[in-house]
Specification:
The complex is a heterodimer of chains A (about 260) and B (about 625). By secondary structure, chain A is an alpha/beta fold. Chain A contains 9 helices and 6 strands, in the order H-E-H-E-E-H-E-H-E-H-H-E-H-H-H. Chain A has a 6-stranded mixed beta sheet with strand order 2-3-1-4-5-6, sandwiched between helices. Chain A is globular. The chains are: A alpha/beta (about 260), B alpha+beta (about 625). Chain A: Keywords: Nucleotide-binding.
């Protein structure tokens, strides 16, 4: 399907409930703000409770309307998390590449999601604050996808490993979590994996596009082919789908088509 | 500075312990009620020491019970009928009975009423001044101020300059940069730790500090610096406090030079305010109380108690993580000067009665079934409220909500809708409610949405006890917005916001007054004139608030029962007037003629009375 065709023809649209989880101050709200408003605020104050935002993401064949729950990372809000990830079709588990403890927390969240959330949930592991590392703005390669079968992912690993060694030699790099460590974890658990910078915008839209592509069409209850205006009410789509996500499909679907938002 | 205060005679026998029933007795309509012997004796002979001032202000002094010490009584609890009992041809009794009925609803307010309404020798003079509190003719006002004109020292000083051209108090002798730097971060220790001296120097330069520590001496929160930097000072504070605790003599406050330290102990927490800004102990204590309720609001009382009962050395800063900004923005609003905190009252958006009614109806019509409270707030000013009949809203709780929604950026900057677990200590300190917050864009051009100022932002706040009710609240919000769009309410709100607060000269043409605060005691709400143009800058506003702080403290000082306080100084004339119905504070130029001042003040009072249903929310939408 060509781009012009997809832009002109009305596409089916569907809603996807997405939840952001992760330790406090890793940049969850900043990622959302970048994705929704293409904006960034230094020293953003902590989220209190949870914020609900929506943003459309246009794919070649359909439009995804993300209903995003941006949760507060503080411990005392943890007991409320099930309310937000229940029936969610996608989750962004965020850690801070300069803070190893935040990856540990992220692993806890992933485990909890795998145990408690809908079976078909698409989970993306996101290492944020890439701008604080030496591979700051220009590295999109480091953020390879963690596909178990993908050769390119392995290349990415090696590349990241080399980079790590280089980084160690260079002072001023705040990175404390190597790309390799996170990638291999994401691979084991079958997660999408990205390293992002909400500050510079690196990879942010890519994360959401990748998620949108990874959501199996079967789990989207859209009136396909009936044209525009078929967007379901959010309530209609919030029911969980049991279908398993085939992450292998993602690579093909992502292609070079960005998110048109 | 020369000050002239006029306190009325008081009856030493009427104190805070007087029961409600007494105050409800219609003394004034039965003036023949026999004085009891003890009373007439005491008013003649030597007076016993006065009991602590027991009226609404007693909550300022209240050292017992954190619940009881919440900032004020329920705000919208007073039904309209109470207010409307007041007729233009008010006789001596009408006003007082109104006040008794209005204020008598709160345990705090009772006592003051019984005081004013108590039968005694001076009754005639006393009720006369009450009667004239909203004078119908100027003659009354003259009479009210006559004697005090005679005793006041000549105020026509030479060399007086414009209003607040220079600081009234040495503490306010700072420029805009000075006051702005008050809110700046002092920075962090660098890795080598060699900038500690510099940081401490900056820390000491702050005029106002708040420190919260646990009884075990762990620093919990401090407005400036971090616990590492000031741990030494926290240790000193802890030592001083516990020295007195050990001897069962609780430390409440002390001074060091021009710095005042006030300590408030709540459970396992010590809250300390350190101020060089000329605030009274009561005012500082009220601020600490608000910080404490913010902590309760974050954690709830049972979980706070539990944390410390399990482990007295608990580090509370962890569970409070993320709420520091709420504490800081609350603290900064105190430092900047907050009429709302000073008066323990709320401000409402001035809007026509019928428009408010239309909004109330829309709220009632769209009310979701699990809704507890619904609020429409424009830049910290309440527009309308919907609430269940049996629950009113507490100003202290609303202060916390408004601080969270409008002052702290955590909610607004998110850009979406928020769903926030919050404990409202005044409503129930033992559990959480869930608050839906959505900001409305009511401006015509949506282009520069980034430039909505705090005063312009309109928020819908819907509170439910059900944590799953987000989408229900969202549905109500959508329906409410649609309703208000259809009946033009949104436009009216926008107009009201654009109109802003009136200037004193809009109310009383040619008045000598430059600014006023008026608190309606029955409604626990206040209204004021516009800050602009004279008090727009932070410094001038801070000076203005210092004047009010001082005026308020003089009037409400313990053991004084002042009704009118006139204070003349080099830079301003301030005037306070307290009746059972209202408190009015105003500021005029130095050398202002006393009669002109009094006349203007009474005109303001009349204006407020006339506009009452526009200025205040009386009852609100009740279901």
């Amino acid at each position: 399907m060509s781009e012009s065709a997809s832009a002109n023809a009305p596409k089916p649209s569907s809603s996807v409930k997405l939840v952001l989880l992760g330790e406090a101050a890793v940049g969850k709200s900043s990622l959302v703000l970048r994705f929704v408003n293409n904006d960034f605020q230094e020293n953003k104050e902590p989220t209190i409770g949870a914020a609900f935002l929506t943003q459309k993401c246009s794919l070649p064949t359909r439009t995804i309307k993300f209903e995003i729950w941006d949760t507060a990372g503080q411990e005392r809000f943890a007991s409320l998390a099930p309310m937000y990830y229940r029936n969610a079709q996608a989750a962004l588990v965020v850690y801070d590449v300069t803070k190893p403890s935040s990856l540990t927390k992220a692993k806890h969240w992933v485990a909890e999601l795998q145990r408690q959330a809908s079976p078909g949930i698409v989970i993306a592991l996101v290492g944020n604050k890439l701008d604080l590392t030496n591979d700051g703005g220009d590295v999109s390669e480091a953020a390879g996808a963690a596909q178990s079968e993908s050769e390119s992912a392995q290349d990415g690993d090696e590349g990241a490993g080399e980079e790590d060694e280089v980084q160690d030699a260079v002072s001023g790099d705040a990175r404390k979590v190597s790309t390799r460590e996170a990638t291999s974890y994401a691979e084991e658990e079958g997660l999408l994996f990205f390293e992002t910078s909400a500050k510079t915008g690196t990879n942010v839209v890519d994360v959401f596009t990748a998620i949108a592509n990874a959501i199996p069409e079967s789990s989207l209850k859209t009136g396909r082919g009936t044209g525009a205006g078929t967007g379901q009410t959010s309530l209609g789509n919030r029911s969980a789908e049991d279908s398993r996500v085939n992450l292998g499909d993602r690579h093909a679907a992502t292609a070079k088509e960005g998110c048109a938002c | 500075m020369s000050a002239a205060g006029m306190s009325t005679q008081q009856d030493p026998k009427t104190d805070g312990q007087q029961p409600v029933e007494t105050s409800k007795q219609p003394y004034l309509s039965r003036p023949s009620i026999p004085d009891n012997d003890e009373r007439s004796d005491s008013s003649e002979g030597e007076r016993p020491p006065l009991p602590p001032r027991p009226n609404t202000l007693s909550l300022l002094n209240d050292e017992t019970g954190s619940r009881a010490a919440l900032q004020a009584e329920a705000t919208t609890a007073i039904s309209r009928t109470d207010i409307e009992t007041q007729s233009p041809e008010a006789t001596d009794s009408a006003y007082s009975t109104l006040a008794i009925r209005g204020l008598g609803q709160g345990p705090k307010a009772r006592a003051s009423l019984s005081q004013l309404a108590s039968p005694r020798g001076s009754e005639a003079g006393d009720s006369a001044s009450i009667r004239s509190s909203i004078p119908n003719d100027s003659g009354d006002v003259e009479a009210l101020f006559m004697d005090f004109a005679a005793i006041a020292p000549g105020s026509q000083r030479q060399g007086a300059t414009g209003l607040l051209d220079f600081p009234e108090f040495a503490a306010d002798d700072i420029n805009d940069d000075g006051i702005l730097s008050e809110f700046e971060a002092i920075g962090e220790l660098n890795e080598e730790g060699d900038n500690e001296d510099l940081l401490l120097q900056r820390w000491k330069a702050k005029r106002k500090h708040y420190v919260i520590l646990s009884a075990a001496g762990k620093p919990i929160w401090t407005r400036h610096g971090d616990s590492g930097l000031i741990s030494g000072y926290v240790g000193v504070i802890q030592t001083i406090i516990s020295f007195y605790e050990d001897s069962n003599d609780h430390l409440r406050g002390f001074s060091a030079g021009d710095t005042r330290f006030v300590v408030l102990t709540r459970g396992s927490l010590h809250l300390v305010a350190i101020s060089r800004m000329m605030e009274s102990d009561n005012q500082l204590r009220l601020q600490l109380e608000a910080l404490y309720t913010q902590i309760l609001s974050t954690l709830t009382l049972p979980s706070l108690t539990h944390l410390f009962s399990v482990r007295p050395s608990t580090d509370l800063s962890r569970p409070l993580q993320g709420s520091e900004t709420l504490l800081s923005s609350l603290a900064d609003s105190f430092t900047r000067g907050s009429p709302s905190t000073l008066l323990s009252a709320l401000e409402c958006l001035k809007i026509r009665k019928q428009h408010r009614q239309a909004i109330n109806n829309a709220l009632l019509k769209t009310k979701a079934s699990s809704l507890l409270y619904g609020l429409l707030v424009a830049g910290g000013r309440l527009v309308s409220v919907v609430r269940p009949k049996k629950h009113s809203l507490h100003p202290g709780d609303l202060q916390l909500l408004f601080n969270m929604v409008f002052e702290a950026d955590g909610v607004k900057a998110g850009g979406g809708e928020s769903w926030i677990p919050v404990c409202l200590p005044g409503f129930n300190s033992s559990g959480y409610l869930y608050m839906y917050v959505s900001f409305l864009d009511i401006r015509d051009d949506t282009a520069n949405s980034a430039e909505i100022t705090k005063d312009e932002s309109v928020a819908i706040v819907l509170i439910s006890p059900d944590k799953e009710a987000f989408f229900e609240m969202q549905g109500m919000r959508d329906a409410l917005v649609e309703q208000m769009e259809r009946n033009g309410s949104l436009k009216e709100i926008k107009t009201a916001i654009d109109n802003g607060r009136p200037a004193t000269t809009d109310i009383v043409p040619g008045t000598v007054l430059h600014h006023f605060l008026y608190k309606s005691r029955a409604n626990v709400q206040f209204t004021m004139s516009s800050y602009a143009p004279e008090f727009s800058s932070v410094t001038r506003r801070r000076r203005l608030m210092s004047m009010y702080n001082n005026l308020h403290a003089s009037i409400h000082a313990k053991n004084t029962h002042v009704k009118i306080h006139h204070c003349v100084s080099r830079s301003a004339t301030s005037f306070g007037w307290v009746t059972p119905v209202f408190e009015l504070y105003c500021i005029a130029e130095p050398n202002t003629n006393r009669n002109a001042l009094a006349q203007s003040a009474s005109k303001i009072a009349q204006w407020v009375q006339r506009e009452e249903e526009r200025l205040f929310i009386i009852g609100g939408a009740v279901f």
